[in-house]
Amino acid sequence: MYTKEEVLDFVKEEDVKFIRLAFFDVSGKQKNISIMPTELERAFEEGIAFDASAVAGFEGPESSDLFLIPDPSTLAIIPWRPMTGKVVRMFCNIYRPDGKAYEKDSRALLKNACKKLNEECGIELMVGTEIEFYLFKLDEKGEPTKIPFDNASYMDIAPLDHGENIRRDICFTLEQMGFTPEASHHEEGPGQNEIDFHYSDALTAADNVETFKWIVNTKAASNGLYADFSPKPLAGEAGNGMHINISYRNTSGKKDESEKETLKYILAGIYAHIEEITSFLNPTENSYKRLGASKATKYLSWGKQNRSALIRIPASKNHCRLEVRSPDPECNPYIALTFMIYAAIDGIKNKLPLPEATEENLFDNKTASRLGLKTLPQSLEEAKELAAKSQFVKSVLGKMSI
Predict the structure, then answer these.
(1) Which of 24, 29, 329, 360 is least enclosed by beta carbons within 10 angstroms?
(2) pLDDT at 110 over 80
């Protein structure tokens, strides 16, 4: 966790030659501009200007000047670049020329949500993610194919699992950049992999997701492969999910009511709002090919240790947590976690009720039909219609339209 002064000293002492200033468009796609060390102090004091009209979802040409001011706490060395003449990266906050925070900066939106949760509820959400991706071969022209890197299945090992060395390389790189991967393994689909992150605060968790996807794409390319994070890369095979694990810690210093009670209200808040925020958790047409297929839930439900439920409470010896199983890696993690935090605030402050837990196997459609459970939106169009009508969505996003 560097300060501005420490970053300036680090750049001088460690022979840093390039500084990458990273930010995100409204869909969560990472952008960056590189500056020389001589421009770093100006970046901290005044910001580095860029053309917002060229960024999807940002401003038109009549008000296109925005400024990037780096967040020194996010400094990370890019370890695959030369160690002589290092390259570092920092995430940035986005500002208008008058110094006001830019309302479409999704990273700032999540920061504000974390602050509100702390101030109004006296807690901080702790988040861990489980992210799946496929590795595909390239053709003779270097273009991606749909030929999987291997034909291994869930938790197979080498020689069936060809991705073992690449996953290890990804984990080592993450550690070098200051992030904490928790576990990695081959997933169910051919060429499908999963890497899980240790829990952290929500903002760091979202930063981790974006850094992770960047590193996976980079390492796949360096190995002559293509990494695919889309929700349903192959028909008939498992889709790529991004399960979000949520627990919390008390920040108020006051005695908490039982941990299970607070977590129940967090769960109830997310459960109450998940239909209307589904278009942000599953933002592509391809997302809805995944939901309801190959062990990806589609029914509005929650359960204890029930992996077929939309939200589950896993078995744990040390602490209570919940797992939201519908999101996929195409979502903007800053927006997704912002919505979950505001839903948690609603659940806690209004002590929202929960329906009975679902213990049946919802991967069996006959069982689900017998229970009469509602489903999540079945298409992106349906999901967007629900979001457009939602006062909750409007209250969270304000002027930020996606």
Answers:
(1) 29
(2) yes
